Amino acid sequence: MIVWLAWAGSAVGYAVLVLGALSLDQRIHTRAVAQALARHRATQPEPADAVPDEDLRLGVAAVAVLAQGDGSVHRAFFTVITDMVARGVLKPATEDDGTPTLRIANRRRACPPDASEAEAELRSHAAHQNPAAADPHSVMHPTADRLMTEGYLRGRGVYIDFERPCLFWSRTVAALTLPLAALETYAFLDWRYALVAGWTSIAMIVVAWGLALPDGDSPRELRLPVLTERGEQVVRQARARHAHLDPAKRPAARPYAPDEAAAAYAVFGEAAYAHFAAHTPGFAAAVTGGVELRLASRAAEHHRRHRTDFLG
User: Fold this and answer.
1) Which residue among 23, 149, 200, 287 is the one 20 to 30 A from 69 at the CA level?
2) What are the TM regions of this chain, as residue ranges (predicted)?
3) pTM, 2 dp
4) For 172-216, what is each residue's pLDDT tens digit?
5) Residue 224 phi/psi, 5° resolution?
């Protein structure tokens, strides 16, 4: 019984040693992160005043990219489609097999010269397929690229410079583990305890290996937002300008005007989309059908590519 109590005491003591080292290193790491954040804030210039009507200059598609907040272009893509439907460029229809789709309302009317690149591409796509089935990234990439070039977006995965502190205490315990494991094995050499002592020593070595591994991930707290201060100013500007379009404050029976729908969706997202779709018969079904068509096409392409790779 005394031997087993001694073994349990040694195991608990090692566990306390490991947890104490991890706790001390975590404190050092937290302090280093706080110092890095403080240095970053101290070196940031004072935010410039917002340029008047900058959201109008950029357009609703660019505002949609910024308002989504994560650098994605999906909201911007459907903002352009919503705008085209609201203005009567596209209209909900059905294919010969009854599938909901979107079509050009007037094929005889040419694309106006002042139309955006995204609208021109969606018009071209609508000539032979539901434009909602187009790839959002290929359609809206120029818009997102322009926002990044002009300093409204900084991209994803950008971190504050950070010099990671050495894991002194964890690595000290890791270095001490080998002699401790040898001592554990020697102390319980008796055949009755050898198996338990052996497995305990192996477990200690595995824990030490984990303690010695470097932590390569950057701290999440040091990840910079996708929007720059300039981009956030544009979003605040657009929200103030279009506050009257907020679907939460708008009567359900009051539809958006043709020049309001795109701005509402760009700023307020899915709630504004649902409000517009409720007053536009066939729109939601046509958009859903286009998305399903795109996903099915992507899955078929993925399957074809993997089958080709498998067959060599």
Assistant:
1) 287
2) 6-24, 166-187, 193-213
3) 0.72
4) 777 767 676 666 665 655 556 566 666 677 777 777 777 777 666
5) -80, 150
